[in-house]
Design brief:
2 domains, alpha/beta, Nucleotidyltransferase, domain 5, 272 residues, five-stranded mixed β-sheet, globular
């Protein structure tokens, strides 16, 4: 199985190719922190990966992309590129939550910790059936993008639903979904730092990875295309792939997305 993935929902821009299956695969990746440069970077990244793999786009089995939530422009760029590729080569698409990729990268970090690729105090063996990852990323406007995940058969699986909310609302949300912060929970994402005061009562009950230069509190907020591609295995298994015309980004802030879209239409009308 050849899965080509891209992720542009944050300041990070990345692309990846996975070739194989869930248990045994090789990967080629590109990653760069590049605010406002996604449109310039993503297509060259994809071309570079295909050239290295000596593959044509029509040899790809599945496309995958980070559908958000995240920055409106970044999510829109990723959606447009994946739709164009899907239409052009008639390849089905796996739509992956950008927050789930953040959680999946944490799990991947634990797998590689023994090889010192990403250091952490938490050993991969501690990721058991009761382990949970609480992802909180800064959504600006004094809000966070939040989602909770638990480990299941190699994948970090959503508990409840993704939300954009005020940090002060998180405790109530966790109670509603019967998620009790404790030592079985690990906090990941930059929201825990940006809103440290508001989230302190929750965060002090959970585990915090031992961050280093490769996996810091800042870059733990970045979803990676490699994890987007890996999570596509689950979508393939569950037959959740979609055609290009059914690709749909997730902004969570629908009002902001509508306002931005309206401005785009107005600017286009002014130029015409």
């Amino acid at each position: 199985m050849k899965i080509l993935a891209l992720e542009t929902s944050t300041h990070a821009c990345s692309a990846a190719l996975i070739n194989g299956n869930q248990q045994d695969y090789t990967s080629i990746t590109r990653f760069e922190i590049a605010p406002r440069r996604h449109t310039q970077l993503i297509l060259p990244m994809l071309d570079s990966i295909l050239n290295q793999a000596e593959l044509d786009i029509k040899q790809i089995d599945v496309l995958a992309f980070g559908r958000g939530p995240g920055a409106f422009t970044g999510v829109r760029v990723g959606t447009g590129v994946i739709q164009a590729l899907s239409y052009g080569a008639d390849i089905p698409v796996a739509q992956i939550s950008s927050l789930s990729a953040v959680a999946q990268r944490f799990y991947r970090a634990q797998e590689f910790s023994s090889q010192s690729q990403i250091n952490s105090q938490i050993n991969s063996r501690s990721i058991g059936k009761n382990s949970k990852v609480l992802v909180a990323n800064d959504a600006r406007m004094d809000e966070i993008y939040f989602a909770a995940y638990e480990y299941s058969d190699g994948f970090m699986t959503l508990i409840g639903e993704e939300q954009v909310m005020k940090p002060q609302q998180l405790d109530e949300f966790l109670q509603q979904h019967n998620i009790l912060p404790d030592e079985q929970c690990t906090i990941v994402g930059n929201g825990w730092r940006v809103y440290a005061e508001q989230l302190s009562e929750i965060s002090k009950q959970c585990k915090t990875p031992a961050f280093d230069k490769d996996y810091s509190i800042e870059n733990s907020a970045y979803p990676y295309a490699e994890d987007i591609a890996f999570l596509a295995f689950k979508e393939i298994e569950q037959e959740n792939l979609v055609a290009a015309e059914r690709v749909s980004p997730v902004y969570l802030r629908d009002n902001i997305a509508k306002k931005a879209a309206k401005k785009t239409v107005q600017k286009a009308a002014q130029k015409s």
